[in-house]
Structures are given as structure tokens and as C-alpha cells.
Amino acid sequence: MNEVASNNSLPLDAMVTFAQACRLLPGKRKPHIGSVHRCAGRGVRGVRLRSIVCAGVRYTCKEWIDTFLLETSGNDLPPNTIPTPARRQREIDCAERELAAVGI
After folding, report:
1. How many other C-beta atoms lie within 10 A of the C-beta of residue 36?
2. What is the DSSP letter of 47?
3. What is the pLDDT of residues 37-88, one digit of tens each?
4. Which residues contact 50 (CB under 8 A, 6 or more apart)?
5. Is 72 exposed, middle or buried (0-12, 13-18, 19+ CB in 10 A)?
6. Domain residue extents for the chain
7. Residues 79, 30, 65, 56: is their CA dihedral positive or negative?
8. pTM for the full predicted model
């Protein structure tokens, strides 16, 4: 079983089912298998967990899980850095006043 997955260039023996993938994830509470399917299907924050399907069973690997976790955790913005429409309008008004003050 040391064959290479055709378009993924990873050994097939590195592939794990989604049930096995749940146990590979860090933390005391392991995610439900449905969460792993959602990560591969819809994705999280615009990032999808890579996977392959073989004989109707979906597989991923540790490398793809690690990549997914790094990509989704690096996108965290503190709540106060996401501007609300009102805050954004205040910022625009302030910038326009500053430009008017210098004659631009």
C-alpha cells in the first residue's frame, strides 16, 4: 500500500479516514466527525480541509490537517479590529476632515 495518490503526491498509507482524523486533532475534546466533514465541504473562514474520496470513503492526512489548522488559526482578528459600518463611516469622515484641513 505504498502507492501514490494520483493528484496529491502523498503515499496512500498516510491517508486516514475522517473518524481517524478526529483523533489526530489536538485538545482534550475531540471534534465530531460531522465537523471534519464540514471543514472539508463548506470550509472554515474560506479555507477547506483537503481530502480525497476512494470507494465512497473520504480520506485526509496529517499534513493536510496541519495546513488547515495553520491557515484557519492565522486569520483570527481581535473583535475590535473588525469595523462596524458606523465605525467605518466615522473613520471616513475623520479622514475627509483631515484632507480638507490640508487642502486636498
Report:
1. 25
2. B
3. 999 999 988 889 999 998 999 999 999 999 998 888 875 555 556 667 888 8
4. 8, 40, 60, 64, 67, 68
5. middle
6. 12-77
7. negative
8. 0.61
